[in-house]
Specification:
Glutaredoxin, 121 residues
Length: 121
C-alpha cells in the first residue's frame, strides 16, 4: 500500500488518517520532495481508472503556465511531461494497492481499495 501524499493538503492528511485509523500504515511517497519519474507516472496512469488529464490539478494557479482551463483534455505524454517538471500539480492523494490505484477525493475513497484488498485475502 503506497500513498502519494502532500502533508500540506487537508485531503491528503485526511486520507492518511483514515487509513491509519483502520489499522493500515501505507508507505508514504512525499512526491514534492521525491518527484515521480516518467516510469512511475506511466505506471500510475496504467493503474488509475481515469483519463490521464484527471491526474493534473488544472485549478492550481501554477497550472496556468502549462494548460488553460478551457483547453481540451491533456494526453498521456503531455500529462507526464507536465508532472515530471511540476510535481505539485499531481492530483492528490493517490492510493496504490497492488495493481490498482485511485485518486482519493474524497478521502473516503481509500476504502474502495482497502476493502477490495481485504476481500481478495
Amino acid at each position: 500500500m503506497r500513498l502519494y501524499h502532500n502533508p500540506d493538503c487537508s485531503k491528503s492528511r485526511a486520507a492518511l488518517a483514515l487509513l491509519r485509523d483502520a489499522g493500515h500504515e501505507p508507505t508514504i511517497v512525499d512526491y514534492l520532495s521525491q518527484p515521480p519519474d516518467t516510469a512511475t507516472l506511466d505506471r500510475l496512469l496504467e493503474l488509475l481508472d481515469v483519463e490521464p488529464d484527471a491526474l493534473v490539478r488544472r485549478n492550481d494557479p501554477a497550472a496556468a503556465q502549462w494548460v488553460q482551463p478551457d483547453e481540451p483534455p491533456l494526453d498521456r505524454n503531455r500529462v507526464i511531461e507536465i508532472l515530471t517538471v511540476e510535481p505539485a500539480l499531481l492530483q492528490r492523494p493517490i492510493l496504490e494497492v497492488d495493481d490498482r490505484a485511485l485518486i482519493a477525493r474524497p478521502p473516503e475513497r481509500v476504502f474502495e481499495l482497502v476493502d477490495a484488498e481485504a476481500a481478495d485475502e
